[in-house]
């Protein structure tokens, strides 16, 4: 597959770079390759619970160096979208620090009195009182926003209700459908492209889900790459009326050997020795990219 025109990259996080907080094969090498080549990239996630700084620390614990400036969450995308719609507006939020921090930094005021927007994000502490407040505010005119449509999320004990499930409850009570900013809305990809100054024609999106990553990438005009290390498998591809530009077994296939290096039998490039003063973990983390 010819990727010679690709100069910028967007990638999902869970199922692509990490799985259950463990780095997937080839992920560290791919990130190192992008740093070495100074390629613009962003790591995307629909999770709005954590700040970019939190996620950067989580990835570091998995052995992956991703500065917080290279992480784009549905919370950041939502704050970016709302700031362009109504600069300096007011919001009532059901969510965690990732959402509230992003909105504060975008200049929004948090209030329970006649807010411009009600924003539903991910949380592990859904409150009946807060949901009731959201319903009443929407009924009296506040605009209804959700960070992402995911109905459930994973946990060690099984699935948990997520943003989409709570949004559905509020929709049932109000008759109002939220505007969803995160994947599969291509709005999230377009804001990510703007963030790194990239163009859709020269950007690839790597994801593990046909119903979010691939469809949103196609609608945003990106080169789409489905990796089979996460949710969607070969059988899933056949169920959809659209197809990714290419399918890979893992992100190691995107790592190309440096001069004088050969690929191993599995097709992944061997990890290059660190050059003196170049791209060490401590340098990457300290420089912020």
Structure characterization notes:
By secondary structure, the protein is an alpha/beta fold. The chain has two domains: 8-46 and 189-287, HAD superfamily/HAD-like (Rossmann fold, 3-Layer(aba) Sandwich), CATH 3.40.50.1000; 75-180, Rossmann fold. Helix content is 34%, strand content 18%. It has ten helices and 15 strands. The chain has helices spanning 27-36, 52-61, 74-85, 97-105, 128-139, 163-174, 187-196, 210-219, 234-238, 281-287; strands spanning 8-12, 18-19, 22-23, 41-45, 71-73, 90-94, 109-110, 117-120, 143-146, 152-153, 160-161, 179-180, 203-207, 223-227, 246-248. The strands form four sheets. It has a six-stranded parallel beta sheet, sandwiched between helices. It has a five-stranded parallel beta sheet with strand order 7-6-8-9-12, with helices on both faces. A two-stranded antiparallel sheet has the order 2-3. It starts with 7 loop residues before the first strand and ends with a helix. Residues 255-266 have a biased composition (Basic and acidic residues).
């Amino acid at each position: 597959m010819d990727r010679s025109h690709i100069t910028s990259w967007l990638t999902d996080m869970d199922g692509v770079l990490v799985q259950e907080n463990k780095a997937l094969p080839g992920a560290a090498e791919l990130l190192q390759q992008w740093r070495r080549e100074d390629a613009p990239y962003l790591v995307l996630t629909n999770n709005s619970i954590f700040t970019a700084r939190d996620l950067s620390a989580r990835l570091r614990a998995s052995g992956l160096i991703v500065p917080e400036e290279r992480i784009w969450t549905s919370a950041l995308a939502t704050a970016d979208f709302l700031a362009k719609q109504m600069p300096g507006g007011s919001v009532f939020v059901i969510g965690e620090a990732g959402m509230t921090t992003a909105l504060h930094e975008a200049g929004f005021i948090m209030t329970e009195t006649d807010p411009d927007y009600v924003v539903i994000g991910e949380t592990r502490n859904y409150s009946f009182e807060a949901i009731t407040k959201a319903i009443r505010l929407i009924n009296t005119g506040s605009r209804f926003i959700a960070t992402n449509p995911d109905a459930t999320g994973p946990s060690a004990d099984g699935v948990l209700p997520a943003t989409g499930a709570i949004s559905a409850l509020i929709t049932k009570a109000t008759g109002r459908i939220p505007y969803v900013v995160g994947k599969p809305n291509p709005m999230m990809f377009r804001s990510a492209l703007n963030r790194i100054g990239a163009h859709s024609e020269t950007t690839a999106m790597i994801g593990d889900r046909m119903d979010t990553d691939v469809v949103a990438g196609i609608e945003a005009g990106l080169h789409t790459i489905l990796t089979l290390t996460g949710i969607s498998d070969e059988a899933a591809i056949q169920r959809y009326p659209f197809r990714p530009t290419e399918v890979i077994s893992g992100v190691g296939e995107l790592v190309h050997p440096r001069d004088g290096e050969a690929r191993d039998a599995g097709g992944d490039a061997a990890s290059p020795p660190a050059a003196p003063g170049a791209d060490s973990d401590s340098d990457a983390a300290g420089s912020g990219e």
